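Annex B. Sample input.
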Amino acid sequence: MTAAAALFLSVGAAAPAFAADPSPNPSAAAAQLCTDLNKLRSDATALSGLNPASATKDQVKDAYNDVKGGWDTVGKSKATWNAAQKEAVKSAADGLKKTWDDLPDDTTGAEAATKLKPQAQTLDSAVKSARTGLKCPG
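Annex B, continued. Sample output.
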């Protein structure tokens, strides 16, 4: 991708000169990234919204796996987006993974939900910022 096209997608400026981008379909890639970020944000919100008083270990595991799958999809995106925002989302996802990996095997659902909540909220915030930077609809 040309530097000009990267700048276009990262700051959202519009100019006809960027129409000659060599990528197959940068607008389709960006639209797919927005869709994938929406799902990741929804999954992070669901994880952070689990009630520690009633969350089971399986519910927490399922919610975490949804977030992990969402990040895996976002991480494979071919769209060009702001490097700082991408790094913020990656860092938040990595923090969530580290917290998950550090949970002892005998952790209860309540303990897991409580420990994962701050990291899920950080991921939600990073994804929200990335979506704003990409000018995702909705």
